[in-house]
Amino acid sequence: MFRTKIIQPNPEGEQMLRDAMRNIVQPSRRAFLQRTLTLGGMTLLTGCTPNSERSIEAALTQISRWNDRVQGMLFDPTRLAPIYPDSMITRPFPFNAYYGEDEVRQINGDDWRLELSGLIADRAPWRLEQLRQLPQETQVTRHICVEGWSAIGKWGGVPFASFLRRIGADLSAKYIGFLCADDYYTSIDMASALHPQTLMALTYDDRELPPRYGFPMKLRIPTKLGYKNPKHVHAIFVTNTYLGGYWEDRGYNWFGGS
Ligand SMILES: Nc1nc2c(c(=O)[nH]1)N[C@H]1C(S)=C(S)[C@@H](COP(=O)(O)O)O[C@H]1N2
Ligand SMILES: [Mo]
């Protein structure tokens, strides 16, 4: 139920808002909302006073979607993420996933195929060897995880924009989705997919991508937060339908710019 008229002090509502905040897993987002969001403020942003836990969640989601649109509008497709000298690479580079390092998926590179579907002219699957034969680039960039750490690493691989052109992807489509060997999934906007630093990474630190960092292929997107960099990718699809992602469906902001 929504009240739209006068905003009255609502201690129960304030408590529910605080509870909903605690459920927001992204610390930066939580801190931002805690600093800026009151029930009255939420009413101004969403046009109604949410007064149940569910409607607060819904209102927060609405704010996050609005945030996606703003980030999408502000995103400058030519602006490059900072690059660093090799001497600044973080060693050892951290591992992270929704499970522990002992559960890292062991994938056989000879059997692996990259499946393509959706708005793509040539949907033939790719073998790892074929990807290795495409022109490669290497870059040293900073990976920022919302859990509160960042690290500088060196990834090499195929610029994603050139791959998308090569397979005849519809570059006017809105989204690219990724499925991973470990049930992880995410999706990104086309502008970020075409950004010159977005790589289909096949190497880490000039060697074959190790299993823990996403063998045989991960998307390295230095303009996005860590959770928007899917490892162990085995399927890519191009679509106009919103897809969300593993963490995005659990409350992380979808655009996830860094
Ligand atoms: N397949 C897959 N990709 C994933 C994740 C995951 O759990 N599974 N976690 C994401 C998160 S939250 C982070 S911070 C980075 C960690 O990458 P790293 O292990 O190379 O540091 O991977 C991202 N991509
Ligand atoms: Mo992360």
UniProtKB/TrEMBL annotation:
Residues 104-247 form the Oxidoreductase molybdopterin-binding domain. InterPro entries: OxRdtase_Mopterin-bd_dom (IPR000572), OxRdtase_Mopterin-bd_sf (IPR036374). It holds the Pfam family Oxidored_molyb. This is Molybdopterin-dependent oxidoreductase. It comes from Noviherbaspirillum album.
